[in-house]
Amino acid sequence: MVKIGDIELPDFPLLLAPMEDVSDPPFRTLCKENGADVVYTEFISSEGLIRDAAKSTMKLDIYETERPVGIQIFGANLDSMLQSVEIVERTRPDIIDINFGCPVKKVVSKGAGAGILKDIDLMVSLTEAMVKHTSLPITVKTRLGWDDDSIKIVEVAERLQDVGIKAISIHGRTRAQMYKGNAKWGPIAEVKNNPRMHIPVFGNGDVSTPELAMKMRDEYGLDGAMIGRASIGYPWFFREVKHFFETCTHLAPPTMAERVEVARRHLQMSIDWKGEKLGVFETRRHYTNYFKGIPNFKEYRMKMVTSDDAQGVFEAFDEVLEKFGDYSFA
What we know:
The protein is α/β, with parallel strands linked by helices and 330 residues long.
């Protein structure tokens, strides 16, 4: 059993990564139904929360069926982060996660996200203040370091643990790498193998198959895996990993009927939550993976990603089911 504070999780839990414009309530619901043990919100700007910016406050929406759920915030100003903790607490999440890993320039340029990896003392002092400011468990998501010449993740993780965080998720790339090259899990294992570490250490980056999830568990000895890109448009990934852990065999992939049904539900939930315009737009990124591998599919994919109204997308789903209903993904 793995514990984040008092939250009990199964051995080697699978966590849905916080992903901008992806990890919203509709998608989190689908991942939870398919076996995700913990889900995290999209990352939320502390400055946006304080200004009551609509996009930031909307991301605070969480639902009972998602629990345990973590709300992730980012920022580099102490007062703003403490105020945002107070705002987040009102929505009653199970976990507050601090984003110290986002590599995007507009975040890093403000010293937030992975930008704070240039100032480890600030990273630690800000975290300590947030831990003291709430009774909720604080967790951290970060990267190996700013670049290959400044990887101090073993020391960083230990210092963050010592000021009170309850778990750490580490993406196996530096900020300089962005999302290029291969993630390195070895340095994450060094954190886990540090005899002074006693909080869960979760690995993130390139967990794209059940076999790789098992490798992270068995060869690198990590406490769990945080799943990001492998789940986009494919919430079944969580159940496939768990089936593989239990049986060492691959679960049959979802049928065309199941893919269409889940894509339809995803779109409808998105529309119900954020309105038709945004709902249609923000689910587009998922369709390539929902229907990946189908030959001669471009015409239908283009209709899904270019339709400006829901009716056009729902019609495309119907056409796909009619034309490709017997297609085998095995």
